[in-house]
C-alpha cells in the first residue's frame, strides 16, 4: 500500500525504474556496505547486538532510533573510528575491520562524514577546512586546491565565505560547510550524523534537498543517522530501526513500507510519534 | 477539614500552618480533607507542602482526600508521584569494597592510558624525525607564540618574587655571621639549579598545560578530532606533536629567562637592604654558579616541558564528550603535571646526589 502522505523518494523511483522485477532489498551485487552479526557497545555496556543489514549502491539509507540507542556509535564503527565487539563491516567485498590500520585508513578516504555540528576545525578558515583533505591526500597544486574549495563551497551555497572562521557562521552554515569538507575528496559514501538536528524546518528541508541532490548528481551512497521523521520519509529509500528496548534491529526496509507492514510496536510508535494508526483490516 | 487561605506562592511569605502541625501532633486524626475556596493563588509552594503532608499522613495511616483541591494541584501531585513510582530515585551508595574496586579499576585504566599515550607519542616522534609526520607549521608557530613570549610577563613576575624571597630569607640568616655576601651564592645556585626550572614548570602547567587540555578537549567534544581521524590523520602527529615540540623548545629559554629574573630579584634585595654593591653581587654570583648547576636546571626544564605538554595533551585527547568533562580534563592536566614535576624533581635530586654533581 502506498501511503499518500509520503511520496516516493527519488532513490526509490530510480530503483523501481531501473529494476522493476526485483523483490525489495534483494540486490546483493549492488551491496555497498554489508554489516553482518554486528555487536557493539562500550566495554560491558552492550548497545546493539546481531545487527544485519545491507546498504545498496546509490541508496539513501537511514539509521533511525531514539536518542541514546547507539546510532552515532554505529556510525563511528562504519567510518572506522571505533571497533565493533563482534561481527563484520564489509565495503564491497572487503572486510573493513579485518584490514591493517594503514589499509583501513586508505579505505577511509572513500568515506565522507558530516558530523552532528559540522565539527569544523575551529582554528582554520573555511577554505583551509575544506582544503585540508585535498592537501593531505592529493597532489593538487595550491591553485587547484583553491579552485576545488571554491567549487565545493559553492555546491553547498557558501561561496564567498572562504575566509570566514567557523565561529563566524550560523549553525546551518556550519553544517553545510561540514558537508563541503566531507565532499572534498569526492567520497563514494557519505555519512551524516543527525543533519537536521538543531535546524529550523526550512533549513532542515534545504539540507535534505541538498543531500538528495548530492545522492543523485554525484552518485554517492548516503547513510544518514536521524530521528527526524520528516527527513526519513522524505529522503530515505531504505532504513534500519535500532530498538533501544531490545538492543536489536527492530525492523528494516523502506520507511513507508515499515510504517505499513511492521508488527514491531516500538517501531510503529517511533514512526507515528506514538499516535495510533489505522491499517486496513486483513493485512498480515 | 483543612481550609487553605490566602496566597501560596514562592515569592510570598509562607501562610501560617503551625496550627495544622499542632493538630497532627496532638489528637489522633483519621482523615484529612481540604477546602480551597478561600485560596487566592498558588504555585509550587502549595504543591510541595501538600506533597510532604501526604507523605507524612501516609506514614501515620491518615487518609487524605484531595478532592477539595484545585484540579491543577491534583494533577501536579499525581505527576510527581508518578515519577517517584517509576523508581528514578538515587541508587544505593556503593559498599566500601565496591568503591575500592572501582578506584583500583580507575587507577589501572589511567595507567594503561598514560602508557599508551607515551608509546604513541614516541612513535609519533620517530615519524616526525623521519619527516613523515603530518602537521601544520602554522599551528606550531601559533603554539610557540602562545607558550613563548606571551608567557614572559607571568614568568618575570614570579621569578623576580622568588629571587626576592630567597634573598631575604637567606640574607637575614647569613647576616648573623656577617656573611651576607653569600646571599648571591644562595640565590644564584637556588635559581639556576632548582627554582628557575620548577617555577617555570609550574607556571607553564597552569598556563599552557591547561590551555592544551581545554583546547584539545573542546575539539574532542566538537568531534573535530574524529573528523581528523576519518581523514586518516593521526591527532598525535597533527595536534600533540606540535604542542610537545613547542614546549620542549620554549621551556629552556623561559628557564634561562627565569634564572636571570630571579638573580635580578636577589640583587635588588642585596643592594637595597644589605649594603652589597651590584658589582660585588654579580661577581659573587658568577663565581658561585657553575656551568653544571646551570645545565642541570636547563635539562630539568626540558623534562618539565615534556611533562606539562604530555599531561595537557593526554587529558585533552582522552576527554569525555561534555562541557563538564573539559573542565575536569583541564583540572587533571594541571594537577598531574605539577605532581609529576615534583616527583621528577625529587628523582633528579637523588640522582645528582648519587652521581655527585
Ligand atoms: N565513549 C563512551 N563511553 C561509554 N559510553 C558511551 C560513550 N559514548 C556514548 N556512550 C553511551 O552509548 C549510548 C549511545 O550513544 P550514541 O551512539 O551517541 O547514541 P545516539 O543514538 O543518540 O547517537 C549512550 O547511552 C551513551 O551514554
Ligand atoms: Mg548521536
Detailed description of the structure:
The complex is a heterodimer of chains A (284) and B (357). Chain A is α/β, with parallel strands linked by helices. Chain A folds into two domains: 33-110 and 188-275, P-loop containing nucleotide triphosphate hydrolases (Rossmann fold), CATH 3.40.50.300; 124-186, no CATH class. Chain A contains ten helices and ten strands. In chain A, strand 7, helix 7 and strand 8 (221-226) form a beta-alpha-beta unit. The relative contact order of chain A is 0.17. Residues 16-27 of chain A have low confidence and may be disordered. Chain B has 357 residues and is mostly helical. Helices cover 74% and strands 5% of the residues of chain B. Chain B has helices at 18-25, 44-59, 71-85, 96-129, 137-147, 152-175, 183-221, 224-230, 235-273, 278-288, 291-317, 323-355, and strands spanning 2-3, 6-8, 31-35, 39-42, 63-65. The model of chain B has no long low-confidence stretch (mean pLDDT 87). Chains A and B meet through helix 3 and helix 4 of A and helix 8 of B.
What is the count of distinct domains of chain A? 2
Strand content of chain A: 15-25%
How many individual helices of chain B? 12
The N- to C-terminal Cα distance of chain B equals: 90 Å
**N to C succession of SSEs of chain A:** HEEEHEEHEHHHEHEHEEHH
Largest sheet features of chain B: 3 strands, parallel
Q: Can you tell me the number of structural domains of chain B?
A: 2
The overall pLDDT average of chain A reads 84
Assembly state here? heterodimer
Specify the CATH class of the largest domain in chain A. Alpha Beta
Task: Give the SSE layout.
The complex is a heterodimer of chains A (284) and B (357).
Chain A: H1 10-18, E1 31-42, E2 45-56, E3 60-64, H2 71-78, E4 86-91, E5 94-95, H3 101-108, E6 111-114, H4 126-137, H5 142-155, H6 171-183, E7 189-193, H7 201-217, E8 221-226, H8 229-235, E9 238-243, E10 248-253, H9 255-261, H10 265-271
Helix pairs in contact in A: 4-5, 4-6, 5-6
Chain B: E1 2-3, E2 6-8, H1 18-25, E3 31-35, E4 39-42, H2 44-59, E5 63-65, H3 71-85, H4 96-129, H5 137-147, H6 152-175, H7 183-221, H8 224-230, H9 235-273, H10 278-288, H11 291-317, H12 323-355
Parallel strand pairs in B: 1-3, 2-4, 3-5
Helix pairs in contact in B: 4-9, 5-9, 6-7, 6-9, 7-9, 7-10, 7-11, 7-12, 9-10, 9-11, 11-12
The structure holds adenosine-5'-diphosphate and magnesium ion.
